[in-house]
Amino acid sequence: MQFLDDSLHPENMDKVVITVAPYGPEWMPEDFPEDIPVTMEAQIQKAVDCYEAGASVLHLHVREPDGKGSKRLSMFNELIAGVRKAVPDMIIQVGGSISFAPEDDGQAAKWLSDDTRHALAELDPKPDQVTVALNTIQMNIMELIYPEFYEGTSLANPATYDAYREMIVPAGPTWAEEHLRRLQNAGIQPHFQLVGMHALETLDRMVRKGVYKGPLNLTCIGIGGGHHGPHPYNLFDFIQRAPDGCTVTAESLFKNVLPWNTMALAMGMHVRCGIEDTLIDQHGKRFTSVQQVQQLVRIAKELGREIADGKEAREIYRIGTWYDDVDETLAGNGMTPNRKPGVKNVPLRRVA
């Protein structure tokens, strides 16, 4: 991304798109009963509460009536329909992992089969986005969740701890290409969850080969355990290397969430919060998803940045926009064109 002398002035930045992840599939309801909705009505109301607080994107997972993370697409359909009716402008972003929470003690926290994950393209009503990871990689969320953070929660169970410590994100090239094909055919926008520079480079190659032809909405994940850690230079490097025409959202874990998001806000980027990312504030106290959204709204306003509502977030994310070919996709995302035969040196962007 390009930064001019006035790029840090809020009047030259997009409005802030706040993504909230209020369902936290890694937790059980007893871990935070005040803020983990279980009934379908409560899950829908949680979306409403977060939207009214200032979140325009809902990162969606679903719970069964017993409180466990649901893997049934029918439950996702029901929640999507309920949220769409209650807050029609809110962007619905289904977590591409579906629900990686283990069903029983000792069961691995495995992502579901390729066929089941592909079926997210068949959700009805369809979501606006599905999150997509690239490159199979370790996702040891326990590396940066310190014992004092999860003491007294279900993650303190040794079997559950080990399941999340050993979790793998399956996202090889065959799966990724097929998944993107199905999402595009269904008119569902992928939101790319990128775990490091190698994933950003893989996405760049996929765009240049025509595998994906749409806007680039990216999340830079700083959670360690096989992903970027929350080192500031990881975020700075990612933003510097990201295409000029994309969006970048920051995501981290626990006490790293607030500083990671604050840096993103100051640089004109977007933010994510919610109990899927942290149960606590900077002082170690329980912190609801709504409170987290409200905090980000306050910080954004102190920086002079306005908050995007649902309709504005759709424009910023270019929901519903698709491109006809590789050249149009590259131009639409502010990327240099592919090298043409005979062209030497660094390719130049198209000049009007």
Automatic annotation (TrEMBL):
Stretch list, region Disordered: 333-352
Cofactor section: Zn(2+)
GO MF: 3-keto-5-aminohexanoate cleavage activity; metal ion binding
Signal sequence annotation: none
The organism's place on the tree of life at top rank: Bacteria
One Pfam family linked to the record: BKACE
Keyword terms, alphabetized: Metal-binding, Transferase, Zinc
PANTHER family, sorted: 3-KETO-5-AMINOHEXANOATE CLEAVAGE ENZYME, 3-KETO-5-AMINOHEXANOATE CLEAVAGE ENZYME-RELATED
Entry protein name: 3-keto-5-aminohexanoate cleavage protein
Species the sequence originates in: Cupriavidus necator (strain ATCC 17699 / DSM 428 / KCTC 22496 / NCIMB 10442 / H16 / Stanier 337)
